[in-house]
Amino acid sequence: MPKNFQVIDVGTSKICSIIAEIDEAGMMAVSGVGVVPSQGMQKGVVVDIDAVQRAIHEAVRMAQSTSGIAMKSAFVTITGRHLRSVNNRGTVGIFRRSRLVSPEDVRKAVAQSTNITIPGDRRLVRIIPRYYILDGHVEVKDPVGMHGFRLDADTHLVTASATAIRNLVDCVRGAGLEVADLIPGAVAAGEAVLTEEEKEIGALLADIGGGTADIALFKQGGVWHSAALPIGGYQMTRDISIGLGIPFEVAEEAKIRFGNVTPGYEMEGTVNLGDGYAVSGREFIETVSARAEEIFKMIFAEIASHEYEIAAPAGLILTGGTANLPGADALAEEISGLPTRVRLPREVAGPADILYDPAYAASVGLLLWGAKHGAEVWWKAQELKPPGPVEAMRRWFRRSRVKS
Question: Which of 64, 66, 93, 162 has the fewest CB atoms within 10 Å around its CB?
Fold first, then answer.
């Protein structure tokens, strides 16, 4: 029987829900997609639970309606400035007579790597093994079945604000689903736009959306650094709106129609934006370019220049809705010196044409992650267990308002 699963990419500008099927041969196909404008999110963080619940509920309803499949849980992206990452190592001894490494040894070594001090207001949301070391000197990808006396697991650990997690989980539960797993946005996007070769030799990923830029440095097949910066297309639109004295909606449309950040690009004369609004072409391009340059400089400041130039010989991969801005790759390459290209998410089978756009990199990546890894629920702390009777009644009442 086919296995069905659902994903929900909760972003600042849009919420995308996808339902997919995996057949007995392991082939995946999309069966339903729901996309709605995001409400109640600011820079990747929930600021209005009711509004986010309504948006998630509608995206889920659309996906389930087109697929004809009702789901009870979903894989969900998590982003926002509250995300933090650190690399750590766990060690276990191989004491059995054969000295053969078992899957249990690997699990114990990975678990040991999580022995770090995490403040009470934060939770561990993702453990990503980078590589393993046998007897202190041999780096391997999969040590199971190999001989050794000591096994080290080098991992990338991502933590998040407990409050941000709780609010996001409440929104999904309020829309009628449980959270099967939480995946950082940059990790999800990497699944959709990076090749295995790029991950191996070293690549810097920047998924620039409406409210956040999710970045990750991949090396030796694993994640070496990840972060979510509170910058994106909304900030650019706001600067256009405020700087040129036009409504936000008009500024957003102008950015999409006329925006171009190619180094040296000029726009002379007056740009007619419609609805009676017109702006100086030169001032418009200067405003857009200045904000884009600031975004890229913040991204590169997250990783010291001498590090990313050495660690990312495959270059910078841009994705996310803001990557659709003409000249984004040329400007990023001029600032960083890294070879840069805009990447679309890989195509997936089924009625999913809308997803073949940089804006849906995290959505497609979340889908691929779910199919590849399944649920590895590290984030479920004690206080996030199913609610008691009083809390359940409160959530039922909230859901009834969302649906009505």
Answer: 93
pTM above 0.70, yes or no: yes
Give the CATH class of 84-159. alpha beta
In single-letter form, the type of residue at position 8 comes to: I
Please, what is the angle between helix 162-174 and helix 389-403, to 10°? Answer: 60
* CATH no., domain 197-342: 3.30.420.40
State the CATH class of domain 3-81+162-194+346-403. alpha beta
Rg for the chain, CA atoms, rounded: 22
Closest by CA position to 226, among listed 34, 85, 383, 397: 85
Q: Return all residues near 176 (Cβ < 8 A) that are at least 6 apart.
A: 57, 60, 399
Whether 197-342 and 3-81+162-194+346-403 are alike in CATH topology: the answer is yes
- Rounded-to-integer distance, Cα 168 and Cα 278, Å: 40
| pLDDT attached to residue 376 | 52
Q: Which two tokens stand for residue 354?
A: 């809308």
- Predicted local distance difference test score (pLDDT) of residue 395: 46
Query: Which amino acid, residue 198?
Result: E
| Helix or strand run (H / E) with residue 280 | strand 277-280
Neighbours of 156 (CB within 10 A): 23
Furthest C-alpha separation in the chain: 82
Domain extent listing, the chain = 3-81+162-194+346-403, 84-159, 197-342
